[in-house]
Structures are given as C-alpha cells and as structure tokens.
Amino acid sequence: MTGRRRLPQYVSEFADRHGKMHVRFRRKGQATYYFKSVPWSADFMQEYEACMAKEAAPRLIVGASRTKPGTFSALIAAYYSTPEFTGLRDSTKVTYRGIIERFREKHGDKRVALIERQHIKAIIGAMAETPSAANNLLDRLKSLMTLALDIGLRKDDPTIRVRGFRISGDGFHTWTEDEIQQFEDRHPIGTQPRLALALMLFTGQRRSDAVTMGWQHIDGDLIHVRQQKTDARLAIRIHSSLRQVLSGTSRDNLTFIVTSHGKPFTPAGFGNWFRERCDEAGLSQCSAHGLRKAAARRLAEAGCSNQQIKAVTGHKTDKEVSRYTAAADQQRLAGQAIDSVDGGEREQTLANRPRRLAKTAAKPLIRKGP
What we know:
Layout: E1 11-15, E2 21-25, E3 33-34, H1 42-52, H2 72-79, H3 83-86, H4 90-107, H5 117-125, H6 131-150, H7 177-186, H8 192-201, H9 207-210, E4 218-219, E5 222-226, E6 233-237, H10 240-246, H11 267-280, H12 288-301, H13 306-313, H14 318-362
Antiparallel strand pairs: 1-2, 2-3, 4-5, 5-6
Helix pairs in contact: 2-6, 4-6, 5-6, 8-10, 12-13, 12-14
C-alpha cells in the first residue's frame, strides 16, 4: 500500500464515497476549507497561506449566529459580505479583520444607533500611544458607519470631522549600508537569514512575496514575481550578489526560505522570525519591510528614474516611490545644486582672471618722475 504524501500542517486528504480524493484544511477554531489546487503547487500555497491567515478559513466566532440585530457585531457581519470588503486583496482582508475584530471584542454588543461623535473621539483618543493603530481603526469605523447609513441603522455619521493623530517620521526604518553589512557579518552566506536578506534587498519585494519565492520562479537570469498585495507580475534580473547566495540554496523545498521544520513561512511568521534575526545582529531598529525601502534607496542613489524603480518594486505611482526615495533624492539634488553653484563660481573666477592680469600688466612697473 502506497503511503500518504506529506502535506502541510492542518492539511489532510481523504476519499469520498465515490472514491474522489479531496484535500482539506481543518484547524480548531476555523472553518473547514477544501483546496482547489494540487498540493504544493504555487496556487495551493496561496490557498494554504490564506487559510493560515484565517481568510480562506475564517475564524469561527462563538455565538455569531445569535448576533443581536442593530449591534456592532451585526453591522460587522454585514460589512464582511459587502463588495467593498470582498473585493479587497486577501492580505488586506486579513489586516482589516484584525482591526475590526479587536474593536468587536470590546464594543460588539453595543447598539450602532446609540454611538455618538464624543464616543468615537474617546475611543480613538484612548489609543494615543499607538497613533497609527488609532488612525487605522478610525478608517474602519468610517467604513462601518457608511454601511450603517446605507442599511438604515443610522441617519447620521458620527465619524464625520473626527480627526486621527498626526504621524511624525516616515514609517519603517530604512536600512543603512552599515546596518546591512552588520547583518551580513552576523549571518554569513549559507544561512537562512542571509538568504532572506538577499531575496528582499536585491528584488525589492515585500515579505509576503519573499516567502513564496522558489526555484520554480527562476528562469535564466530572471526571477519572476507575482505580488500578493497588488497581483502585479514582475520579471527582475537576478543581481550577482543574490545569485551567489542562491548558488548554495537547496532545491529540495518548494520555497527558498523555510522554517526549522522545512515548511514555508507565513508572512506574519516570517516577520517575527526575521525580527529575531535582526535582534541577534544587534539591529533592533531594523525590520523586513525596511529592506524594501533600502532597495528603493539604493536604486535612487544609483540615479534610477521613478519608472525604473517602479519596474523593480512594483509600485504603481510616483507618489508611492517618493516615500522610499525622498532622502536619496534630496541628497542627490542638493549635491547637484551645490556643484552647479560651485562650478559656476570657478568658471567665473577663471574667466575673470585673465582680465585682471591684463589690467595689472598694463600698469607701468616703474613710476616716472615729474
């Protein structure tokens, strides 16, 4: 009898009464999900990732069937079935669910019709220590209130003119060249951390894309990427440094980066794991996302245009790219400006020098007597 094939955690296969084989995801606290793709294929791994993120196999909410009409729990359940939510990317759905479910745990049993602007301001104001999280929650509450208006739970929107916090800084720290070198010194070629760094730094991709990359995406001098967040398809030439790191990478796994158990990472799991590897290198200020910014910075410092940078990173607009390249652009433009002034002054000095010499030569060297 042929043994069962190895499958990812929480995944099993069985034959129904007609003898047809099925592969399903079963995890306590989540709905059962039946896979549509062949196990270990790229599409299968995307489905599995969505299950692990509680999107394809959403978390089961105790008492959800007994949700009271008019409460935030009922409004949230209705929001999850709207085109506004179902049309989002899977990764965005996971993020939004996390924000909304945390709000539901505290306020799910409260009536939507009774909440007022002062309550919204108090909820957001209480999150002053985490301003980004507060602003994200406010955005989700605005969406919920818009739905409440549409379905008749409200006659007004209490989130109107409620402002979030002003965020200072530019988000995730961009790795410097010294920090990159420090990480490489701690994690040499042949280690998983060094492989992870090289994949993100030399492709400019997000962690959600780095964890899906494998040998099947390599075609000659190109690595093919289908971005999870935007669905953009990219073909990026493999940098010589990345090729050096990949040369010693095993071909036994579906993905380049694997856990200690030889299984693919989830984006969240990879982020936590990479955070620990940064700490080991004494780089507590660095993160996986900061490498994407460092890649864009390097491209900007090399004089690449916005179009060239977008071709690598997959960004859609110049505005998105500018967030990553502002510092490099400022330094380059400032240098060009000073060079133009400095060079102009030198040219003017050289141009005037012969005339001054000529005037000096024209004066008599010996004063004649009276």
